[in-house]
Specification:
4 domains; 10-stranded mixed beta sheet
Protein backbone atom coordinates (compact mmCIF):
# COMPACT_ATOMS: atom_id res chain seq x y z
CA UNK A 1 0.00 0.00 0.00
CA UNK A 2 1.04 3.61 -0.21
CA UNK A 3 0.27 6.29 2.30
CA UNK A 4 0.85 10.03 2.05
CA UNK A 5 0.41 12.60 4.76
CA UNK A 6 -1.54 15.82 4.45
CA UNK A 7 -1.58 18.75 6.85
CA UNK A 8 -4.55 20.76 8.17
CA UNK A 9 -4.12 23.38 5.47
CA UNK A 10 -4.81 20.78 2.82
CA UNK A 11 -8.31 19.67 1.83
CA UNK A 12 -9.19 16.28 3.26
CA UNK A 13 -10.72 13.89 0.78
CA UNK A 14 -13.71 11.81 1.78
CA UNK A 15 -12.47 8.39 0.75
CA UNK A 16 -12.04 5.69 3.38
CA UNK A 17 -11.17 2.04 3.58
CA UNK A 18 -12.62 -0.57 5.86
CA UNK A 19 -12.55 -4.04 7.26
CA UNK A 20 -9.45 -6.26 7.02
CA UNK A 21 -10.89 -9.22 8.93
CA UNK A 22 -10.88 -12.68 7.35
CA UNK A 23 -14.11 -14.62 7.00
CA UNK A 24 -15.17 -17.27 9.50
CA UNK A 25 -16.91 -20.42 8.37
CA UNK A 26 -20.48 -20.20 9.56
CA UNK A 27 -22.12 -23.31 8.19
CA UNK A 28 -21.78 -27.01 8.70
CA UNK A 29 -19.42 -28.34 6.06
CA UNK A 30 -18.78 -26.75 2.68
CA UNK A 31 -16.10 -24.39 1.43
CA UNK A 32 -14.43 -21.91 3.74
CA UNK A 33 -15.62 -18.37 3.14
CA UNK A 34 -12.04 -17.15 3.49
CA UNK A 35 -10.75 -18.64 0.25
CA UNK A 36 -11.46 -20.72 -2.81
CA UNK A 37 -9.04 -23.49 -1.95
CA UNK A 38 -5.42 -24.12 -2.84
CA UNK A 39 -4.76 -23.05 -6.41
CA UNK A 40 -8.47 -22.40 -6.99
CA UNK A 41 -9.92 -19.92 -9.45
CA UNK A 42 -13.17 -18.02 -9.25
CA UNK A 43 -15.15 -14.81 -9.25
CA UNK A 44 -15.91 -12.64 -6.22
CA UNK A 45 -18.44 -9.83 -6.37
CA UNK A 46 -19.15 -7.27 -3.68
CA UNK A 47 -18.11 -3.89 -2.31
CA UNK A 48 -14.52 -2.80 -1.74
CA UNK A 49 -14.10 -2.86 2.02
CA UNK A 50 -10.42 -2.05 2.33
CA UNK A 51 -6.93 -2.05 0.88
CA UNK A 52 -4.47 -4.56 2.09
CA UNK A 53 -3.83 -5.29 -1.26
CA UNK A 54 -7.53 -4.90 -2.12
CA UNK A 55 -10.22 -6.23 0.23
CA UNK A 56 -13.67 -7.22 -0.99
CA UNK A 57 -16.17 -8.35 1.62
CA UNK A 58 -13.33 -8.86 4.10
CA UNK A 59 -11.26 -11.13 1.82
CA UNK A 60 -7.88 -9.74 0.79
CA UNK A 61 -6.73 -10.24 -2.81
CA UNK A 62 -3.23 -9.61 -4.12
CA UNK A 63 -3.71 -6.96 -6.82
CA UNK A 64 -0.03 -6.34 -7.62
CA UNK A 65 -0.54 -7.53 -11.21
CA UNK A 66 -4.27 -6.90 -11.55
CA UNK A 67 -5.92 -4.60 -14.07
CA UNK A 68 -8.59 -2.38 -12.46
CA UNK A 69 -11.11 -1.15 -15.03
CA UNK A 70 -14.66 -0.05 -15.83
CA UNK A 71 -16.77 -0.60 -18.95
CA UNK A 72 -18.28 2.29 -20.91
CA UNK A 73 -21.31 2.50 -23.20
CA UNK A 74 -19.32 1.18 -26.18
CA UNK A 75 -18.04 -1.86 -24.27
CA UNK A 76 -14.53 -0.40 -24.02
CA UNK A 77 -12.60 -1.10 -20.82
CA UNK A 78 -10.88 1.93 -19.26
CA UNK A 79 -8.30 1.74 -16.47
CA UNK A 80 -9.46 3.22 -13.17
CA UNK A 81 -8.43 2.87 -9.51
CA UNK A 82 -10.84 0.93 -7.31
CA UNK A 83 -12.21 2.99 -4.41
CA UNK A 84 -13.78 2.23 -1.08
CA UNK A 85 -17.42 1.19 -1.33
CA UNK A 86 -17.39 0.57 -5.06
CA UNK A 87 -19.12 -2.57 -6.28
CA UNK A 88 -16.52 -4.71 -8.05
CA UNK A 89 -16.08 -8.12 -9.62
CA UNK A 90 -12.73 -9.81 -9.04
CA UNK A 91 -11.61 -12.58 -11.38
CA UNK A 92 -8.79 -14.78 -10.13
CA UNK A 93 -7.00 -17.73 -11.69
CA UNK A 94 -5.18 -18.47 -8.45
CA UNK A 95 -6.49 -18.39 -4.89
CA UNK A 96 -6.22 -14.88 -3.46
CA UNK A 97 -4.56 -13.36 -6.55
CA UNK A 98 -6.66 -10.96 -8.63
CA UNK A 99 -6.28 -10.89 -12.41
CA UNK A 100 -8.90 -8.24 -13.13
CA UNK A 101 -10.98 -5.90 -10.97
CA UNK A 102 -14.09 -4.76 -12.83
CA UNK A 103 -15.77 -1.70 -11.30
CA UNK A 104 -19.57 -2.02 -11.44
CA UNK A 105 -21.56 1.19 -10.79
CA UNK A 106 -25.28 0.51 -10.52
CA UNK A 107 -26.70 3.96 -11.23
CA UNK A 108 -25.32 7.11 -12.82
CA UNK A 109 -27.68 10.00 -13.39
CA UNK A 110 -29.74 12.79 -11.80
CA UNK A 111 -31.45 12.72 -8.40
CA UNK A 112 -35.18 12.68 -9.13
CA UNK A 113 -36.56 12.55 -5.58
CA UNK A 114 -35.40 13.47 -2.09
CA UNK A 115 -37.33 12.63 1.07
CA UNK A 116 -36.13 15.04 3.78
CA UNK A 117 -34.96 13.23 6.89
CA UNK A 118 -35.35 9.87 5.19
CA UNK A 119 -32.76 7.20 4.42
CA UNK A 120 -34.15 6.99 0.87
CA UNK A 121 -33.68 8.96 -2.34
CA UNK A 122 -34.29 8.25 -6.02
CA UNK A 123 -31.85 8.36 -8.95
CA UNK A 124 -33.59 8.25 -12.35
CA UNK A 125 -36.69 6.95 -10.58
CA UNK A 126 -34.84 4.08 -8.87
CA UNK A 127 -34.93 3.84 -5.08
CA UNK A 128 -31.62 4.09 -3.18
CA UNK A 129 -31.21 3.49 0.57
CA UNK A 130 -28.39 5.21 2.45
CA UNK A 131 -26.81 3.42 5.43
CA UNK A 132 -26.10 6.11 8.02
CA UNK A 133 -24.32 4.15 10.79
CA UNK A 134 -21.70 1.41 10.82
CA UNK A 135 -22.79 -1.37 13.15
CA UNK A 136 -23.44 -5.10 13.03
CA UNK A 137 -26.42 -4.53 10.72
CA UNK A 138 -24.45 -2.74 8.03
CA UNK A 139 -21.58 -0.44 7.12
CA UNK A 140 -22.12 3.27 6.54
CA UNK A 141 -22.37 4.43 2.93
CA UNK A 142 -19.23 6.13 1.62
CA UNK A 143 -20.15 9.64 0.50
CA UNK A 144 -17.81 11.47 -1.89
CA UNK A 145 -18.34 15.10 -2.87
CA UNK A 146 -20.69 16.04 0.00
CA UNK A 147 -20.32 16.83 3.69
CA UNK A 148 -23.45 14.83 4.51
CA UNK A 149 -26.51 13.31 2.89
CA UNK A 150 -28.50 16.50 3.54
CA UNK A 151 -26.20 18.34 1.11
CA UNK A 152 -27.44 16.33 -1.88
CA UNK A 153 -29.84 18.38 -4.04
CA UNK A 154 -32.50 17.28 -6.48
CA UNK A 155 -31.05 17.24 -9.99
CA UNK A 156 -27.49 16.52 -8.82
CA UNK A 157 -25.75 13.84 -10.86
CA UNK A 158 -24.70 10.85 -8.75
CA UNK A 159 -22.87 7.58 -9.32
CA UNK A 160 -24.17 4.96 -6.89
CA UNK A 161 -22.70 1.56 -5.98
CA UNK A 162 -24.28 -1.17 -3.87
CA UNK A 163 -26.43 -4.30 -3.94
CA UNK A 164 -30.09 -4.61 -4.91
CA UNK A 165 -32.40 -5.95 -2.21
CA UNK A 166 -36.14 -6.42 -1.91
CA UNK A 167 -37.17 -3.68 0.52
CA UNK A 168 -40.10 -4.48 2.82
CA UNK A 169 -41.11 -0.83 3.36
CA UNK A 170 -41.17 -0.07 -0.38
CA UNK A 171 -42.25 -3.48 -1.65
CA UNK A 172 -39.70 -3.03 -4.44
CA UNK A 173 -36.04 -3.75 -5.17
CA UNK A 174 -33.95 -0.98 -3.60
CA UNK A 175 -30.24 -0.29 -4.09
CA UNK A 176 -28.56 -0.45 -0.66
CA UNK A 177 -25.78 2.07 -1.29
CA UNK A 178 -22.20 1.23 -0.40
CA UNK A 179 -20.88 4.37 -2.15
CA UNK A 180 -22.48 7.57 -3.47
CA UNK A 181 -20.25 9.90 -5.48
CA UNK A 182 -21.07 13.32 -6.92
CA UNK A 183 -20.49 13.46 -10.68
CA UNK A 184 -19.27 16.67 -12.28
CA UNK A 185 -18.81 17.51 -15.93
CA UNK A 186 -20.12 15.36 -18.75
CA UNK A 187 -21.09 11.77 -18.03
CA UNK A 188 -22.88 8.78 -19.52
CA UNK A 189 -26.24 7.75 -18.08
CA UNK A 190 -26.26 4.24 -16.62
CA UNK A 191 -29.03 2.24 -14.97
CA UNK A 192 -28.90 -1.27 -13.51
CA UNK A 193 -31.11 -3.58 -11.55
CA UNK A 194 -33.65 -6.39 -11.76
CA UNK A 195 -36.06 -6.75 -14.67
CA UNK A 196 -39.48 -6.65 -12.97
CA UNK A 197 -41.71 -6.67 -16.05
CA UNK A 198 -41.55 -7.12 -19.82
CA UNK A 199 -44.31 -5.10 -21.50
CA UNK A 200 -43.53 -5.92 -25.12
CA UNK A 201 -40.71 -6.75 -27.55
CA UNK A 202 -37.69 -4.78 -26.38
CA UNK A 203 -39.68 -3.01 -23.63
CA UNK A 204 -38.94 -3.67 -19.98
CA UNK A 205 -39.00 -2.03 -16.56
CA UNK A 206 -36.41 -2.27 -13.80
CA UNK A 207 -36.84 -2.47 -10.04
CA UNK A 208 -40.61 -1.99 -10.12
CA UNK A 209 -40.26 1.65 -11.24
CA UNK A 210 -42.39 3.46 -13.81
CA UNK A 211 -39.36 3.90 -16.07
CA UNK A 212 -39.65 1.91 -19.31
CA UNK A 213 -36.49 0.98 -21.19
CA UNK A 214 -36.63 0.50 -24.95
CA UNK A 215 -33.97 -1.77 -26.37
CA UNK A 216 -33.37 -4.04 -29.36
CA UNK A 217 -36.51 -6.24 -29.73
CA UNK A 218 -34.30 -9.21 -30.62
CA UNK A 219 -32.80 -9.16 -27.12
CA UNK A 220 -34.75 -11.26 -24.63
CA UNK A 221 -34.54 -10.57 -20.89
CA UNK A 222 -36.79 -12.47 -18.52
CA UNK A 223 -38.21 -11.19 -15.24
CA UNK A 224 -35.59 -11.50 -12.50
CA UNK A 225 -32.61 -10.96 -14.79
CA UNK A 226 -30.13 -8.37 -13.56
CA UNK A 227 -29.07 -6.01 -16.33
CA UNK A 228 -26.90 -2.95 -16.88
CA UNK A 229 -28.02 -0.43 -19.50
CA UNK A 230 -26.53 2.75 -20.92
CA UNK A 231 -29.01 5.44 -21.97
CA UNK A 232 -28.99 8.12 -24.65
CA UNK A 233 -31.10 10.52 -22.58
CA UNK A 234 -33.08 10.90 -19.35
CA UNK A 235 -36.74 11.89 -19.19
CA UNK A 236 -38.98 11.62 -16.16
CA UNK A 237 -41.21 8.48 -15.89
CA UNK A 238 -43.40 7.18 -17.35
CA UNK A 239 -41.72 8.20 -20.60
CA UNK A 240 -39.77 5.54 -22.46
CA UNK A 241 -35.99 5.76 -22.38
CA UNK A 242 -33.97 4.61 -25.36
CA UNK A 243 -31.14 2.24 -24.48
CA UNK A 244 -27.90 2.53 -26.46
CA UNK A 245 -26.50 -0.69 -25.01
CA UNK A 246 -27.72 -3.30 -22.52
CA UNK A 247 -26.27 -6.53 -21.14
CA UNK A 248 -26.99 -9.29 -18.66
CA UNK A 249 -25.04 -8.20 -15.57
CA UNK A 250 -24.95 -11.54 -13.71
CA UNK A 251 -21.44 -12.90 -13.05
CA UNK A 252 -20.41 -15.70 -15.42
CA UNK A 253 -17.90 -18.09 -13.85
CA UNK A 254 -16.49 -20.89 -15.97
CA UNK A 255 -16.58 -24.62 -15.27
CA UNK A 256 -15.42 -25.52 -11.77
CA UNK A 257 -14.76 -21.93 -10.71
CA UNK A 258 -16.08 -20.82 -7.35
CA UNK A 259 -18.57 -17.95 -7.17
CA UNK A 260 -18.50 -15.71 -4.08
CA UNK A 261 -21.29 -13.14 -3.76
CA UNK A 262 -22.39 -10.42 -1.35
CA UNK A 263 -26.09 -9.79 -0.92
CA UNK A 264 -29.02 -8.69 1.23
CA UNK A 265 -31.52 -11.51 1.72
CA UNK A 266 -34.00 -13.21 4.05
CA UNK A 267 -35.60 -16.63 4.24
CA UNK A 268 -38.68 -15.18 2.53
CA UNK A 269 -36.58 -14.52 -0.59
CA UNK A 270 -36.27 -18.25 -1.23
CA UNK A 271 -38.37 -19.53 -4.11
CA UNK A 272 -38.43 -23.28 -4.67
CA UNK A 273 -35.19 -23.55 -2.72
CA UNK A 274 -33.43 -20.92 -4.84
CA UNK A 275 -32.14 -17.45 -3.98
CA UNK A 276 -31.38 -14.77 -6.56
CA UNK A 277 -28.08 -13.08 -5.77
CA UNK A 278 -26.60 -10.41 -8.07
CA UNK A 279 -28.94 -11.62 -10.80
CA UNK A 280 -27.95 -15.28 -10.61
CA UNK A 281 -30.17 -18.05 -9.22
CA UNK A 282 -28.38 -20.05 -6.53
CA UNK A 283 -29.84 -23.26 -5.14
CA UNK A 284 -29.64 -23.24 -1.33
CA UNK A 285 -29.37 -26.78 0.09
CA UNK A 286 -31.69 -27.70 2.95
CA UNK A 287 -28.83 -27.74 5.47
CA UNK A 288 -28.09 -24.06 4.68
CA UNK A 289 -31.64 -22.75 4.33
CA UNK A 290 -32.04 -22.63 8.11
CA UNK A 291 -29.22 -20.08 8.31
CA UNK A 292 -31.08 -17.48 6.26
CA UNK A 293 -32.36 -14.67 8.53
CA UNK A 294 -36.03 -13.86 9.07
CA UNK A 295 -35.46 -10.26 7.91
CA UNK A 296 -33.16 -9.05 5.10
CA UNK A 297 -29.58 -8.91 6.34
CA UNK A 298 -26.09 -8.70 4.79
CA UNK A 299 -24.83 -12.14 3.89
CA UNK A 300 -22.10 -13.86 1.94
CA UNK A 301 -22.41 -17.06 0.01
CA UNK A 302 -20.18 -19.28 -2.07
CA UNK A 303 -21.45 -21.52 -4.84
CA UNK A 304 -20.15 -24.02 -7.35
CA UNK A 305 -21.63 -25.52 -10.50
CA UNK A 306 -23.05 -28.92 -9.57
CA UNK A 307 -24.76 -30.97 -12.29
CA UNK A 308 -25.39 -27.81 -14.25
CA UNK A 309 -26.94 -25.94 -11.31
CA UNK A 310 -25.27 -23.23 -9.23
CA UNK A 311 -25.47 -24.55 -5.67
CA UNK A 312 -24.40 -22.83 -2.45
CA UNK A 313 -21.61 -24.57 -0.56
CA UNK A 314 -21.27 -22.02 2.25
CA UNK A 315 -23.35 -19.19 3.66
CA UNK A 316 -22.72 -16.67 6.39
CA UNK A 317 -24.66 -13.75 7.80
CA UNK A 318 -22.36 -10.77 8.22
CA UNK A 319 -22.89 -9.57 11.76
CA UNK A 320 -19.63 -9.14 13.69
CA UNK A 321 -18.26 -5.77 14.76
CA UNK A 322 -15.08 -6.38 12.73
CA UNK A 323 -17.06 -7.42 9.67
CA UNK A 324 -19.60 -4.59 9.54
CA UNK A 325 -18.64 -2.20 12.32
CA UNK A 326 -16.70 0.21 10.14
CA UNK A 327 -13.19 -0.84 11.17
CA UNK A 328 -10.52 0.27 8.69
CA UNK A 329 -7.04 -1.18 8.22
CA UNK A 330 -4.44 0.63 6.13
CA UNK A 331 -0.99 -0.75 5.38
CA UNK A 332 1.80 0.94 3.48
CA UNK A 333 5.25 2.49 3.34
CA UNK A 334 5.61 6.28 3.29
CA UNK A 335 7.89 9.13 4.24
CA UNK A 336 6.94 9.51 7.91
CA UNK A 337 6.00 12.67 9.79
CA UNK A 338 4.70 12.08 13.30
CA UNK A 339 3.25 15.61 13.44
CA UNK A 340 0.92 15.07 10.47
CA UNK A 341 -2.78 15.35 11.30
CA UNK A 342 -4.06 13.06 8.53
CA UNK A 343 -2.82 10.38 6.20
CA UNK A 344 -3.96 9.12 2.81
CA UNK A 345 -3.73 5.61 1.40
CA UNK A 346 -4.95 4.93 -2.12
CA UNK A 347 -7.24 7.96 -1.98
CA UNK A 348 -8.54 6.98 1.47
CA UNK A 349 -7.99 9.58 4.17
CA UNK A 350 -8.04 9.16 7.96
CA UNK A 351 -7.50 11.75 10.67
CA UNK A 352 -4.77 11.51 13.32
CA UNK A 353 -6.06 13.00 16.59
CA UNK A 354 -4.99 13.21 20.20
CA UNK A 355 -6.66 9.90 21.06
CA UNK A 356 -4.82 8.03 18.30
CA UNK A 357 -2.49 5.51 19.96
CA UNK A 358 0.93 5.47 18.29
CA UNK A 359 3.33 2.60 18.91
CA UNK A 360 6.53 3.53 20.80
CA UNK A 361 8.71 2.40 17.88
CA UNK A 362 7.32 5.13 15.56
CA UNK A 363 10.05 7.73 14.95
CA UNK A 364 9.30 11.44 14.85
CA UNK A 365 10.22 11.41 11.17
CA UNK A 366 11.91 9.21 8.63
CA UNK A 367 12.51 8.91 4.88
CA UNK A 368 10.43 5.71 4.64
CA UNK A 369 8.44 3.89 7.33
CA UNK A 370 6.07 0.93 6.96
CA UNK A 371 2.81 1.44 8.84
CA UNK A 372 -0.30 -0.44 9.86
CA UNK A 373 -3.15 1.90 10.71
CA UNK A 374 -6.50 1.02 12.29
CA UNK A 375 -9.38 3.50 12.10
CA UNK A 376 -13.15 3.70 12.42
CA UNK A 377 -15.52 4.88 9.71
CA UNK A 378 -18.13 7.41 10.79
CA UNK A 379 -21.43 8.50 9.17
CA UNK A 380 -21.57 9.33 5.44
CA UNK A 381 -19.43 12.34 4.58
CA UNK A 382 -17.24 12.20 7.70
CA UNK A 383 -13.54 11.42 7.68
CA UNK A 384 -12.64 8.35 9.75
CA UNK A 385 -10.38 8.72 12.76
CA UNK A 386 -7.27 6.60 13.29
CA UNK A 387 -7.41 4.60 16.52
CA UNK A 388 -3.91 3.06 16.37
CA UNK A 389 -0.78 3.45 14.26
CA UNK A 390 1.92 0.78 14.41
CA UNK A 391 5.29 1.33 12.75
CA UNK A 392 6.84 -1.86 11.37
CA UNK A 393 10.55 -2.64 11.60
CA UNK A 394 10.80 -3.63 7.92
CA UNK A 395 8.85 -2.97 4.74
CA UNK A 396 6.93 -6.16 3.82
CA UNK A 397 7.40 -7.63 0.35
CA UNK A 398 5.18 -6.16 -2.41
CA UNK A 399 4.06 -3.26 -0.20
CA UNK A 400 2.80 -0.29 -2.20
CA UNK A 401 5.10 2.66 -1.60
CA UNK A 402 4.10 6.25 -2.23
CA UNK A 403 6.64 9.01 -2.68
CA UNK A 404 6.72 12.47 -4.21
CA UNK A 405 9.17 13.52 -6.89
CA UNK A 406 9.80 14.61 -10.47
CA UNK A 407 9.77 12.59 -13.69
CA UNK A 408 13.26 12.60 -15.16
CA UNK A 409 12.94 10.45 -18.27
CA UNK A 410 10.54 8.27 -20.25
CA UNK A 411 11.83 5.29 -22.23
CA UNK A 412 11.36 5.51 -26.00
CA UNK A 413 9.19 2.38 -25.94
CA UNK A 414 7.05 3.87 -23.15
CA UNK A 415 7.58 0.84 -20.91
CA UNK A 416 9.60 2.48 -18.15
CA UNK A 417 10.25 5.84 -16.51
CA UNK A 418 12.70 7.27 -14.02
CA UNK A 419 11.70 9.46 -11.09
CA UNK A 420 13.87 11.62 -8.83
CA UNK A 421 12.15 11.17 -5.48
CA UNK A 422 12.24 13.90 -2.84
CA UNK A 423 15.41 13.76 -0.75
CA UNK A 424 17.26 11.45 -3.15
CA UNK A 425 20.26 12.30 -5.28
CA UNK A 426 19.73 9.87 -8.16
CA UNK A 427 16.58 8.87 -10.05
CA UNK A 428 14.79 5.54 -9.49
CA UNK A 429 13.76 3.42 -12.50
CA UNK A 430 10.17 2.10 -12.61
CA UNK A 431 8.63 -0.33 -15.11
CA UNK A 432 5.05 -0.08 -16.40
CA UNK A 433 2.60 -2.97 -16.60
CA UNK A 434 -0.91 -3.40 -17.98
CA UNK A 435 -2.51 -2.02 -14.83
CA UNK A 436 -0.35 1.09 -14.42
CA UNK A 437 -2.59 4.16 -14.04
CA UNK A 438 -1.17 7.13 -15.93
CA UNK A 439 -2.65 10.63 -16.13
CA UNK A 440 -4.28 11.72 -19.44
CA UNK A 441 -3.77 14.93 -21.38
CA UNK A 442 -3.07 17.71 -20.68
CA UNK A 443 -1.02 16.36 -17.75
CA UNK A 444 0.29 13.19 -19.40
CA UNK A 445 3.77 11.88 -18.60
CA UNK A 446 5.50 14.04 -21.24
CA UNK A 447 3.83 17.20 -19.95
CA UNK A 448 4.68 16.36 -16.34
CA UNK A 449 8.33 15.75 -17.24
CA UNK A 450 8.80 18.77 -19.51
CA UNK A 451 6.94 21.05 -17.09
CA UNK A 452 8.97 19.79 -14.11
CA UNK A 453 5.73 19.22 -12.20
CA UNK A 454 5.85 17.56 -8.80
CA UNK A 455 3.87 14.30 -8.71
CA UNK A 456 2.94 11.53 -6.28
CA UNK A 457 4.05 8.07 -7.41
CA UNK A 458 2.87 4.68 -6.18
CA UNK A 459 4.95 1.58 -6.90
CA UNK A 460 5.71 -1.93 -5.64
CA UNK A 461 8.86 -4.03 -5.70
CA UNK A 462 7.82 -7.14 -7.67
CA UNK A 463 10.41 -9.79 -8.62
CA UNK A 464 13.20 -7.31 -7.97
CA UNK A 465 11.71 -4.57 -10.17
CA UNK A 466 10.06 -1.31 -9.17
CA UNK A 467 6.61 -1.74 -10.74
CA UNK A 468 4.74 1.52 -11.31
CA UNK A 469 1.13 1.52 -10.09
CA UNK A 470 0.05 5.12 -10.44
CA UNK A 471 1.20 8.67 -11.16
CA UNK A 472 -0.91 11.45 -9.64
CA UNK A 473 -0.38 15.09 -10.71
CA UNK A 474 -1.21 17.90 -8.28
CA UNK A 475 -4.83 19.11 -8.33
CA UNK A 476 -5.54 22.01 -10.69
CA UNK A 477 -5.16 25.47 -9.21
CA UNK A 478 -8.36 27.41 -8.72
CA UNK A 479 -8.67 30.76 -10.44
CA UNK A 480 -8.26 34.08 -8.66
Amino acid sequence: MSITFTHPTQILRLFTVALAAMFLLACGGGTSLSGVGSGGSGIAEGSVSGFGSVIVNGVEYDDSSAVSQFEDATGTQTLSAAKLGQQVRISQSKDGVANTIDILPQLRGPVTRLDAGSAYLQVMGQWVRVVSVSNTAGTATVLDGYDDIGSIAQGDALEVHGVWSQDASKGLPVLVASRIEKVSGSYTLLISGQVTSVTGPGLLTLNGSATVLETDPSLVFTVGTQVTAWLSQWANPPQTLRVTRIKDAAPVPAGAQLLRLEGMAAASDLTNGQLRAQGRLITIPANLQGQLPANPAPLLLEATLQNGVWTATALRIRGTAQDLGGEIVLKGAVPWDATAQSLTLREATVLIVGSTVMSPNCPRSGPMVALEVHALRGPPGSTPVATTINCLSTVPDATVIRQGGYLQSIASDGKSVSVLFDGQSSPTPLVLFGGSLLPPLPNDLNALRSGHIHVDVEYQVIAGQNQLRKVTPPPPQSGP
